[in-house]
Amino acid sequence: MAEEKSQASSKFPFPYKPYTIQEQFMTALYDVLEAGKIGIFESPTGTGKSLSLICGALTWLRDFEEKKKLEAAQLLADRVPQQGLSKDLQNSSVSSSDKLEAKASGGELDWITEFVQKKAERDLVDKLKDDELKRKKREERLEQIRNNVQLKYASKRKRADDDTEHLIRMSKEVLASDQSTATEPLDKEEESFILAEYESDDEKKPKDSGLSDDDDDVEEEYVTKIYYCSRTHSQLAQFVHEVQKSPFGKEIRMVSLGSRQNLCVNDEVRHLKSAQQINDRCLEMQRNKRAVKKQSEEDEETPKRKRESRAVCPFYTYEQMQFLRDEVLVEVKDIEQLVSLGKEIKACPYYGSRFAIPPAQLVVMPYQMLLHSSTRRASGIKLKDQIVVIDEAHNLIDTISCIYSCEVTGTQLCCAHSQLSQYMERYRTRLKAKNLMYIKQILYILVHLIRILGGEFIDVLLQCLNGKLLALIGIGYFLNHHFFQTQDELNMVQNRNISSLFGFVEKYQVAAVKPVDKENEKKPKTAALDNFLQSLNQKASGQVTPQTQGEAMENEQPAMASPMMKVEGFIFALTNANKDGRVLIQRQGTVAHSSLKFLLLNPAVYFAEIVKECRAIVVAGGTMQPVAEFKDQLLLASGISADRISEFTCGHVIPPENILPLILCNGPSGHQLEFTYQKRDKPLLMDETARIVSNLCNVVPGGIVCFFPSYEYEKQVYAHWEKTGVLAQLETKKKIFQEPKKASQVDQVLSEYSRCIQQSKLSAGDITGALLFSVVGGKMSEGINFSDDLGRCVVMVGMPFPNINSPELKERMAYVDKTMMKTEGRSPGKILVENLCMKAVNQSIGRVIRHREDYASIVLLDHRYSRPSILSKLPAWIRGRTESKASFASSLCDGTNLEFSW
To answer: Start and end of every Helicase ATP-binding domain (predicted)?
Structure first.
């Protein structure tokens, strides 16, 4: 049986003859999905990992659906004993063997038991019939769309045109209107500033969502699907293109999910600077649409009532989003194609793509959308019995910790308190009693948070403290000793009242702070609290320390997110279990520069939610080493048994002679290479490094990428080499480039670096290429490909250990020391630091060797790389070919030298 299964799972549709390691990858993947396991897959860049994931996973999904369909048909025909059914159907049916056993053991079968069993069987048959009917209707509808799209939508579009044009016209009129009526009396001009009564989740009654009466039609059956997640939108787009080229590209139902910033097609919203502003404006337009509908109903009862004009989104209409959903399902589209489609049919891609989730077989999304529980629920993602594939998962632990960690500054706390206090005082007599209560509760919390930072409410932004204070404490201690004075106050945060309180904040979001130079720009009419607080933001902006125009332009930062929303995120973070997080209190000279930060120490708490629901999970990456950390801190800590975890690691497709990894323990002059924090500043060590790099420039053509542990050390070495004349010597062979700190300059530097290498290859001059100084963990250590001549050699200067004096890292070390067992006598905290270092190293050196014909050398400058504990954390395909050399001279003089392929 196992042999037949292995043979069947190895026959995968593929666009070309796969490599042997790809066949092994797909077979292992198929087995993991079939068995419902957690798979860790490591496949180096250039080995076709994406295609292996696509063809392996979709082959399993195709087989699963066919088997389920066949078993359902057999059950409906009553021709198969239920013992032979798959686990999915057995869970919802009653086995015939159970009846026989009951008769044999208990004599006559109890009539109540028999009735219950028969009813369960009837319910199962009814469900199967219903599912089959839905499936056929869906397939027929999609087939009609494939055959004649224009005919399908012609009549519907015609009916929608009038409404769409009306909404666009109304939206533009409102957005273009001049808000210059500030001198009118409060009861007229400021009527819109008064908050509507807010109802918490517990108080809400069923309400209209603002869409059509046909909203129920969008509720479709959630078919078994694969959720594919990766780190960036560019990686997702690349994956979608691989799907399009695969044998499944014509038949698979796939939808791409993304952020509003990437999917919005409303020009009035897209022009906003930050993602927070785009989100706020989008949600406000939805609220306006519901308010407009409610106002229309009231107008029918009281025709003389004055109509208030509101800006609504013309793309947020149910009928157009239905069009988009069906178009998405019939043809695989990436984010750019989705946006183009939304503009064409005047439908919102952000919400329309969500409508396509239930019937989709493959859902592609950024992994923040999967890992953040509230975002996952808001997006309509249901994980029960589904498949999750997380690609580029090497930083999964850190990503989860970052997503659930939250920081709020003194400036944000003071700004939120000031704005909300002024609003309450100005409109106290006009507010509903319940809204006034919520505002007072929020102010109460803000007062305590500011006091923790040492502030009072007289000139709080200028309040100075004596020296600096840094404290890192547990949540329970923080809440009981620093935040609340009575148990009743603590209960307000810990029980469901906090949901009601910050549900109020979510509904009435504070507008983002605009840069000073935008102060006089006309703003569209916004929601009640938004307008008032935005005006306060503008006044506050004018009171900031004076700057010249040039300084303002140079220091201008992206628009700050809503202070109230930052406060909300921090308070919600405090409701986490006490043992899983810490609060870092950092007091500076002023409250404005002080901050409170919540640190999540146990990411397994949130990953366990995903593991509990999914049928199977696959985490994949080009480099997953060190795997032990991943298993211990995330999988085993999530309650996964060791026998449910499956590991797969494959070698590279390049020949052994195409890579030369070297560990240099000593330099050309015999000085030991040890770049510890205490020793790396020595001129002797920097001079030794210069000799190595100079020798490499003499023998390596094309590009050399040299990684330093930090920007500071790279700057220090550069200055020393410039002073000693090393840079001038290096420039006789290679043109030197430095990694910029600003992300906006990265493309320009890479373009010039590439152009220099290409020109040197064509010319017969002394310049043989280029030398790029980069930083581990910087802009060029991940996501940048130095293939072919762009990276014939990568040099790692020292070991990029994190700062062990960091309070956050110290607490993480203490936490793992307390919760995990020692390994070979070594403390988990020290292993954690070592793992963080080697993960960064693996990502950096992985920038070279990008395809089968590529070749390069990897030079690790530090004798500590030769330690077994460090060497074992290199990727297997590199580790097996790594040679440790006592000196640089020995690497040139023995049988294997740096000119191996040149």
So the answer is: 8-443
- Helix, strand, or coil (residue 645): strand
Interatomic CA distance for residues 587 and 823, integer angstroms: 37
**Confidence band for 175, pLDDT divided at 50, 70 and 90:** low
> Helix, strand, or coil here: 708?
strand
**Which one-letter DSSP state was computed for residue 634?**
I
> What pLDDT, on the 0 to 100 scale, is given for residue 272?
83
Q: Could you give the CA distance from residue 731 to residue 773 in angstroms, rounded to a whole number?
A: 13
Q: Apex CA 130: angle with CA 124 and CA 132, to 5°?
A: 100
pLDDT digits (tens, 9 = 90+) for 850-881: 888 889 999 999 999 999 999 999 998 898 88
Alpha helices in 181-334 (DSSP H): 186-189, 233-245, 260-263, 267-270, 275-301, 318-330
Question: Using CA atoms, how far apart are residues 742 and 746, in angstroms rounded to an integer?
Answer: 7
**Is residue 694 over pLDDT 70?**
yes
Count CB atoms within 10 A of the CB of residue 394. Answer: 24
**Domains annotated on the chain, with CATH:** 148-177+226-385 (no CATH), 656-893 (3.40.50.300)
Q: How far apart are CA 42 and CA 50, in angstroms?
A: 12
d(CA 307, CA 291): 11
Q: Bigger pLDDT: 9 or 725?
A: 725
The helix or strand, by DSSP H or E, that contains position 860, with its residue range, turns out to be strand 856-861
Give the per-residue pLDDT at 738: 93
Which of 106-115, 295-304, 471-480, 783-792 ranks highest by mean pLDDT?
783-792
SS (H, E, C) 63-127: HHHHHHHHHHHHHHCCCCCHHHCCHHHHCCCCCHHHHHHHHHHHCCCCHHHHHHHHHHHHHHHHH
d(CA 723, CA 718): 9
pTM of the shown model = 0.80
Contact predicate 241/334, CB 8 Å:
yes
Environment class of 110 (CB within 10 Å of its CB; exposed 0-12, middle 13-18, buried 19+) = exposed
Percent helix, strand, coil in the chain, to 5, is 55, 10, 35
pLDDT value at residue 512: 32
Length of the chain: 902
Beta carbons of 732 and 770 less than 8 angstroms apart: no
- Tokens 């139902």 belong to residue: 253
Bridge pairing between strands 581-587 and 595-600: antiparallel
Closest CA to 654 of 858, 853, 511, 407: 853
